[in-house]
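Structure tokens please, single chain.
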Amino acid sequence: MSHLLKHKPLVIFGTILVLGFAGGAYAYWTTGGSGSGSAGTGTNNSIAITQTSTPAGLYPGGAPAALAGKFNNANAGAVHVDEVSATIGTVTGPNITVGTPCTAADYVLAGFPVQVDADVATGTAVGAWSGGSIAMVDGVGNQDGCKGATINLLYTSN
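Here you go.
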């Protein structure tokens, strides 16, 4: 026991030294930090709007013909479509001349934009839209240029 008392200062110093290292290690492991990172979002492709109805036989003042269609969605997932709008693009035909014109003004679209408000699945000819129509206006003057004409419609969605 006297041997321990002789070395008491050394034992106390050793104990303090061990506790000091333990405190230093503890402080090291609880150090705060900061950093940064990033993430990215994908994009999607436009969907194609197709017309499935085949209106034919339009004549001046005649009944409107229904317009309806589907979508082609090449995206990896569904795409939400609120509505489909239509405009008349060009009018082409065998009887259109300077003397007998036929233009977009000879036709009228009704019911657009049509409400879809649906998620369109991935695929070809998926989903559906309907509710629009096209009619030929009973215009002033000779409309013979419109006989056999093709009315090219342009569709958009949002």
